Amino acid sequence: MARVITDRRARPISATISVVLTVLTVGYFLPWMIAALRGKSNAWAIFWLNLFLGWTLIGWIAAFVLAVMAHQAVGLSSRQR
Q1: Which of 4, 31, 43, 76 is the right S-S partner for 64, CB 3.0 to 4.6 Å?
Q2: How far apart are CA 60 and CA 65, in angstroms?
Q3: How high is the pLDDT of residue 57?
């Protein structure tokens, strides 16, 4: 059976920093926190979008949508378990 390989990455330091900043900014960085905790490969792009355009409601919603979107499949592995 083939296994789907996604773009998920383990980044514990980014996840920790994102949680602290989200708490300190009362939810402003919520999209980035979600992206970092989910291991999104574009978590830093979501951070920059959130930082510069999050003050507009549209920018914050765009960052949030990017954070909660499904991981993208990047390949298949035929390795058996």
Answers
A1: 31
A2: 9
A3: 92
